[in-house]
Automatic annotation (TrEMBL), chain B:
Keyword Ligase in annotation: no
Name this polypeptide is given: Substrate-binding domain-containing protein
Record-annotated membrane-spanning stretches: none
Keyword Signal: yes
PROSITE patterns per the UniProt record, alphabetical: PROKAR_LIPOPROTEIN (PS51257)
Signal peptide: 1-23
Keyword tags: Signal
UniProt source species: Ohessyouella blattaphilus
SUPFAM superfamilies, sorted: Periplasmic binding protein-like I (SSF53822)
InterPro entries per record: Peripla_BP_I
Domain of life: Bacteria
Length: 346, 390
């Protein structure tokens, strides 16, 4: 009896130690990239006698940019992880915000609660546009990359027709919108709400279980009775809704909507999310994937703030090159990670 | 027999076609000469307008003046382009207008004005510049072109001085750190305004402190290279154009917490809301519009040098005269080149002086005023004195 008790005690201690080790490993894995990125960028700024986030304005910009990147990354990953490359995300963002801006202005004329109404309408218009995009993909049975290119052109064309190719400005420049751009709190609330909603939707609902099953093995999942089409449609609608929020946040940040983005001009909105998506997926190995996207967005926002500090020496084209190089370096690392691990073990 | 019949039928058909084609040509030729000789008095005159900016209130005020006022008061129809982005699109627009029967082109787009004039000459349509001006060398080259009616706008020296005065205003108010928005450099008017701003701040650019010295280098650099700026006032940020990276560039500028944000064009259109929110005093060279009025009265807009919507009235008048057969020339027989100065406002009352006077129902250049130069006998002195009086 004593021996058994002794063994049980030992096992308990070992598993507790193992558990602590796993938690520690997860914490390190989750926080390593943002902490290292923050340290490197912070030191670069300090060495040059500057602060990465030097005042309230820069903190507001930091949070708003992080919100835009996090939500775009989640939207991009939803379909991309299921093998559906959706080029129309940017077009959904500009069209939904464009429609929302016009309707909001016609109702409130730029008065009180304009920002709240525009956010709601942009979200609703985004869901509708996402649904239409999904239906086009399902009905036409074209490869998603092709159908999404067509949808992009259609949505850009609709916005161009609506605006005559000009910027939507008067409709979105008012006190209500200025309050949102002048504070970090609304963007922070949006981050929290979106993150919690996405974690619940994809990790704790029937739809989420089915989505994950389809993502892991479509054929097997379909054979077990999971219906693929409704799941795909919901994915498109969720992506659309998220891009509606991105459209709203971009409008807050730019104080206008460019109505003249023809010929895939809107695609750049989506491309900002590639690097954070890969970083977020990596962090997601150690914690929740969606939380990984938030941390990746914070990394990108820190990089953006550092670029802002050195804007006079590192111009926009240099910044694009640096972003592209970082993406390539990270992809090279991801693709050769197993070799690195092998090397370390040996 | 059948073959013979077919042969004669073919000959008959070809003859009918030939006769109708010739008749058609004759009719068109008659119509053309009628339109020219009538000069728009009988038939509606079509004028094409080249536009680079379709979004700003300035641009909208211009198009509203032509469409909502001038087109109703005169027998004229305006056709506007979408936003023209380059010389090729300007050329294509002129070709399209010419094919649609436009007899004159008014330019508010300046990617390549030399090419615009040459294209108008090729299609035998009159050409006039409504915003900005050709640089001196270009004007010398094209001033005797029979289709170049002229240019009524701010001269490059006037652009330089406008930028200079705006910068001096902020320096006198104690600005030690400024951010500059260079609008759409290498557009010549924006180059000269920016050169004026640097000079007004008391800065040198690449060692130069004079108009041509600074402007020439900005043309060469296609923008402002901050490493070449030296002076007591610190230029903490400079950016230009509008695109995907502008929001980041603007945020970088506002985060540098400048004492003033100086724009040489469209700054109020793009950034007024953010500047008001960040409480950064700003100045711009733009127009007298409702949003600028709001920014001046309740925001941080402290200085504006501007034109008003109907300031493009005289250029329309000389274009109509040319189409009517009275191509007005200066004393030396060259195309008109008349400087139209900017009006400046630094407070709400000064702003209202121009803003309230000029609206689409009763513009400053109304029909009664323009009629003084819309005639077969109007001459250079008439046009010059009218422009200078307003």
């Amino acid at each position: 009896m004593r021996l058994i008790k002794y063994c049980q005690g030992n096992l308990k201690g070992t598993s507790k130690a193992m558990g602590n080790k796993v938690i520690f490993r997860k914490c390190i894995g989750t926080l390593a990239i943002p902490v290292i990125a923050g340290l490197i960028l912070g030191v670069i700024c300090l060495v040059n006698g500057k602060a990465m986030i030097g005042n309230r304005t820069s903190f507001n910009n930091f949070v708003i940019y992080a919100a835009i990147i996090m939500i775009t990354t989640i939207a991009l990953s939803i379909n991309l992880n299921s093998g559906r490359f959706d080029f129309s995300l940017g077009a959904m963002a500009i069209l939904s915000s464009g429609v929302a801006a016009k309707v909001t202005y016609s109702v409130l004329s730029g008065g009180k609660y304009s920002a709240a109404l525009m956010l709601g309408l942009s979200l609703a218009a985004g869901i509708l546009l996402g649904l239409i995009s999904g239906l086009i993909y399902i009905i036409l049975r074209l490869p998603p990359i092709i159908s999404s290119l067509g949808v992009t052109l259609i949505y850009e064309g609709i916005l161009y027709t609506m605006t005559g190719g000009s910027y939507i400005m008067g409709e979105v420049q008012n006190t209500s919108m200025a309050k949102v751009s002048g504070s970090w709190i609304p963007a922070f609330i949006i981050i929290v709400v979106v993150l919690i909603t996405m974690i619940i939707l994809f990790d704790h609902t029937k739809f989420g279980y089915e989505y994950n099953a389809l993502k892991s093995g479509q054929k097997v999942a379909v054979n077990t009775g999971i219906r693929e089409i409704p799941n795909a449609l919901i994915c498109y609608a969720v992506c659309g809704g998220l891009m509606g929020i991105v459209g709203f946040l971009n409008t807050v940040r730019n104080a206008n909507i460019n109505g003249g983005q023809l010929g895939f001009g809107s695609i750049s909105i989506m491309f900002t999310a590639f690097l954070p998506m890969f970083i977020g997926s990596y962090i997601g190995r150690y914690s929740n994937e969606k939380f990984g996207y938030l941390l990746a967005a914070i990394c990108m926002s820190m990089l953006n703030s550092t670029f802002a500090v050195f804007a006079n020496t590192v111009n926009a084209s240099m910044q694009s090159i640096i972003n592209a190089v970082l993406l390539v370096v990270f992809l090279v690392y991801l693709n050769n990670e197993h070799l690195l691990k092998k090397g370390v073990k040996q | 027999m059948k073959k013979k019949l077919m042969k004669w039928l073919n000959v008959g058909l070809v003859s009918v076609l030939l006769v109708s084609m010739l008749a058609g040509c004759g009719k068109k030729s008659d119509e053309g000469s009628e339109t020219k000789s009538d000069g728009g008095k009988g038939e509606t005159v079509k004028i094409g307008v080249l536009v680079a900016d379709v979004s700003s209130e300035n641009a909208m005020a211009f198009s509203a003046y032509y469409n909502d006022y001038v087109a109703k008061e005169y027998n004229v129809e305006f056709q506007f382009t979408d936003a023209l982005e380059d010389a090729a699109s300007e050329k294509a627009a002129i070709e399209k207008f010419a094919s649609q029967g436009c007899q004159g082109i008014i330019s508010m787009s300046s990617s390549d004005r030399a090419l615009q004039i040459e294209t108008c000459e090729e299609y035998e349509v009159y050409y006039a510049v409504a915003t900005g001006m050709l640089d001196d060398a270009q004007y010398e080259e094209y001033k005797s072109n029979e289709f170049f009616v002229g240019q009524i706008g701010a001269s490059m020296t006037a652009e330089y001085e406008t930028g200079l005065d705006m910068a001096k205003y902020f320096v006198e108010k104690g600005a030690k750190k400024v951010a500059i928005y260079g609008a759409f450099i290498p557009n010549p008017m924006h180059v000269y305004r920016t050169a004026g701003v640097l000079a007004g701040l008391g800065c040198t650019y690449g060692g130069a402190s004079d108009q041509e010295g600074i402007a020439g280098q900005i043309f060469g650099d296609q923008g402002v290279d901050l490493s070449k700026v030296a002076g007591d006032v610190e230029v903490v940020a400079y950016f230009q154009g509008y695109g995907d990276t502008t929001a980041d560039e603007f945020n970088a500028a506002s985060q540098a917490a400048p004492d003033a944000f100086i724009s040489v064009g469209m700054g109020t259109t793009f950034f007024a809301q953010q500047l008001n929110t960040a409480e950064i005093p700003f100045g711009d060279i733009d127009s007298f519009t409702s949003s600028n009025s709001e920014a001046m009265k309740n925001g941080k807009l402290e200085y504006i040098a501007a034109v008003y919507g109907s300031s493009i009235g005289p250029v329309f008048a000389v274009m109509l005269d040319a189409i009517n057969g009275n191509v007005i020339r200066d004393e030396e027989g060259n195309a008109l080149s008349i400087n139209q100065a900017y009006a400046v406002a630094t407070n709400g009352d000064e702003f209202d002086e121009y803003f309230l006077k000029d609206n689409s129902d009763s513009p400053i250049f109304d029909k009664e005023t323009l009629d003084a130069i819309v005639s077969d006998t109007a001459n250079f002195e008439d046009v010059k004195s009218l422009v200078e009086a307003h």
